[in-house]
Specification:
mainly alpha
Length: 158
């Protein structure tokens, strides 16, 4: 290896980047050491904090459960009926009035009565026409029977 190359290598190691890298590695090592020391010191304190928080949460849950139960009973027995009646009253107030159906019912009843009268009139007229036709045929049969001599009696009468 030539002398020039060894000088160049040494210059690269002594460059700003090389010094920054060395400084970074030393800083990381110091941070790791400090973090492990903090973990050793803070570990027991953190555990005590977790245990204290668990105890306080349990006490809080014991304190709040009866109050929540009382609130639920109040809502169910006192507040709910009041809210329900207020909502029903408001709905009744804002509901539009229904149109008068009595006039419509009277009109329908009147039309039904007129239709029934028409049907009855048609039935009576047809019955009357049928009776008149029957009477006419009976009279013509009687007239023809009177005009026939007695010796020509039909076979039906025998």
């Amino acid at each position: 290896m030539s002398l020039k190359m060894s000088i160049r290598r040494r210059q690269k190691a002594d460059s700003r980047f090389g010094r920054a890298r060395t400084s970074f590695r030393q800083g990381m090592s110091a941070c790791r050491h400090g973090a492990s020391m903090a973990r050793e010191r803070m570990g027991p304190a953190a555990q005590q904090g977790r245990e204290a928080a668990a105890e306080r949460m349990l006490a809080f849950r014991g304190w709040s459960a009866p109050r929540l139960r009382d609130a639920a009973k109040y809502v169910e027995s006192d507040l709910s009926p009041k809210v329900s009646s207020a909502l029903s009253e408001t709905a009744h107030r804002i509901e539009p009035r229904r149109p008068a159906r009595r006039a419509r019912a009277v009109t329908v009843a009147l039309l039904a009565g007129v239709a029934a009268a028409c049907v009855a009139g048609v039935v009576l007229t047809r019955r009357n026409a049928a009776q008149t036709a029957h009477m006419m045929t009976d009279e013509s049969a009687a007239d023809s029977a009177e005009s026939q001599p007695i010796d020509h009696v039909s076979s039906h009468t025998k």
